UniProtKB/TrEMBL annotation:
This is Purine biosynthesis protein PurH. Keywords: Plasmid.
């Protein structure tokens, strides 16, 4: 598997990584994530696409913000 780190990818590759990762097969119309407060996945991962922040860091920040002190592993 190829590295997904910013230093190893182009912006176009990062866009494809995010797009592929978000494709659960069910389509967005049946998903409740965005309207339950999670926000637009494209907005969440824009810093990764733009090469500003690693996807790992975005995921960690997201979990800290939305798990609300629950012990989720």
């Amino acid at each position: 598997m190829k590295s997904i780190l910013i230093k190893d990818t182009t912006k176009e590759e990062r866009e494809q990584i995010v797009k592929s990762s978000l494709d659960c097969g069910g389509g967005c119309e049946n998903c409740s994530s965005c309207w339950l407060g999670g926000g637009s996945p494209w907005d969440i991962y824009q810093d990764y696409i733009d090469g500003k922040k690693e996807i790992r860091d975005i995921n960690m920040e997201y979990m800290e913000k939305y798990r609300q002190d629950r012990q989720i592993h």
